[in-house]
Amino acid sequence: MKVIAGIDEEYDGTLTLKGDIKVGYLAQEPQLDPTKTVRENILDGIQDKMLELHALDQVDSSPHLPAPLPYLTYSIRKGQL
């Protein structure tokens, strides 16, 4: 697929697309920072979700919550909403 999309140019041969054919490519390999560890790269990728969970934990731990709110935050955490 990389050859067809024009990303990988290290090949012998020719490729000719006829008509109005358009080629799209969705990369499946994440672009990792080679200066970071695997853990650091993973944390970079999930940082926004970790911040959301931290905010939910702050709300969850409040003693002044209406009764259904802990259930709501639990459901959000489980991906049920």
Describe this structure in words.
It is a single chain. The two termini are 36 Å apart. The mean pLDDT is 76. It is elongated, with a radius of gyration of 23 Å. Helix 2 packs antiparallel against helix 3 (68-77). It has helices at 2-5, 38-60, 68-77. It has one domain. It has 81 residues and is mostly helical.
The chain-level structural class is mainly alpha
SSE ordering: HHH
* Terminal-residue CA separation: 36 Å
- Residues in helices, as a percent range: 40-55%
| Overall tally of structural domains | 1
Mean pLDDT across every amino acid position: 76
- Assembly status: single chain
Global shape: elongated
Largest pleated sheet: none
Unreliable residue stretches:
none
SS summary, helix count: 3
Number of β-strand runs? 0
What is the percentage of strand-forming residues? under 5%
**Radius of gyration (Å):** 23 Å
